[in-house]
Design a protein that fits this description.
Layout: E1 5-9, H1 15-31, H2 42-47, E2 51-57, E3 62-72, E4 75-83, H3 92-106, E5 111-117, H4 123-131, E6 135-136, E7 149-155
Parallel strand pairs: 4-5
Antiparallel strand pairs: 1-2, 2-3, 3-4, 5-7, 6-7
Length: 156
């Protein structure tokens, strides 16, 4: 990558972050069967009190984002990991996940879980999570009855 990636807490009221989240929702909607889209919209992200990070290169536009939802009991859920299509393959998702994991450990969370899709559109996501140490696990929470959901976890 040419420019240094900076990861910081993201402001959900920032129009650039809202644009990135709209792209994330569009991808999830286009790639998931009806009723199987679990990506959170802006209002849900704000309402659920998630910790949200944004990635930028050289202070420019937001290139990616990720959020952490504390499920309690030492378990956290990765939400809304998304990198702009033009910025993929440059280590941004890895940098975002490293920031999320560092804070997760500092909070004493011992297990990270996530949900992604089971079709080919989500194969790159599943491959990334596998490279980051996540393994397939039983479905949890709202995903238990969704045949399209593919859940993973990582013990920290």
């Amino acid at each position: 990558m040419n420019a240094r990636i900076s990861i910081s807490y993201g402001d959900l009221d920032d129009p650039d972050i809202q644009d990135l989240l709209a792209a994330h929702l569009a991808f999830a909607s286009e790639s998931s069967p009806a009723g199987s889209g679990h990506a959170l919209d802006l209002a849900a992200l704000k309402r659920q009190g998630l910790t949200f990070w944004a990635a930028r290169a050289g202070g420019a536009d937001t290139l990616g984002c990720v959020a952490l939802k504390d499920l309690g009991g030492g378990v956290g859920e990765v939400k809304s990991l998304h990198v702009r299509a033009a910025a993929r393959g440059r280590g941004i998702a890895r940098a975002l996940m490293a920031a999320l994991e560092a804070e997760t450990r500092a909070r004493g969370i011992k297990t990270l879980k996530l949900e992604t899709g089971s079709n080919d559109a989500f194969a790159p996501s599943r491959a990334l999570y596998t490279r980051l140490g996540f393994r397939a696990c039983a479905k949890f929470g709202d995903y238990v009855s969704d045949d399209f959901s593919f859940c993973m976890e990582k013990r920290l």
